[in-house]
Amino acid sequence: FLGIYVSEGHARRTKRKSEVYLAGRKKDVQERMVRTIKSIGFTPFISQRGVTIPNQIAYHLIKNVFKCGIGAWNKEVPFIIFNSADEIKWKFLEGYFAGDGYSKDSRIVFTTVSRKLATGLVLLLRQLGIKKIMITKHHCFRINVYESLPFVKIKNQKGIYYASLPYGRHIPLLKVLYTNLCINNCKYCYNRRTND
Known about the structure:
By secondary structure, this protein is of the alpha+beta class. The strands form three sheets. The protein has a four-stranded antiparallel β-sheet. Strands 5-6-8-7 form a four-stranded antiparallel β-sheet. Strand 3 (45-46) and strand 4 (50-53) form a beta hairpin. 32% of the residues lie in helices and 24% in strands. It has helices at residues 2-8, 27-39, 56-65, 79-82, 86-100, 115-127, and strands at residues 9-13, 18-23, 45-46, 50-53, 101-104, 107-112, 133-137, 141-145, 160-164, 170-174. It contains six helices and ten strands; from the N terminus they run H-E-E-H-E-E-H-H-H-E-E-H-E-E-E-E.
């Protein structure tokens, strides 16, 4: 639930009501949201644009207990997730990916406008042993992951190696030689087959 909320939700409180809203127009996404909400004991209301939980307790859980943030710009990974078992961390990331993630070619991308959330996602991925991560920022933060995750697989590009730079960034390089012994006989190459 928290992964879905952090990616697609917001919480608001007026004089008359408090509610948590999860955006999602696709039917399969809404069904997943409803299953998740019902599993934690709340009654959801479905609209054309998403799912609403009109409940003060849900609002206070999001805002005061889990401290996820109530708007897109101040969202963050709940602190409790960092101290959870790896299985729960993966479920959080899977929920987040369902809302603000996608896979493209040989990478998995998580997007957000919140700097705090981007930092938290990278930390969470690092805790789970994911090393091939690169962050870019144009209109929003994009966390690019260059290795498969349990809930989404990507195709590995043969001949590509990701070099780690001192400040944590990974850059793609062509992996031409796996050893110094080469089967090719290029005239310009020191490691050519006929070089004695």
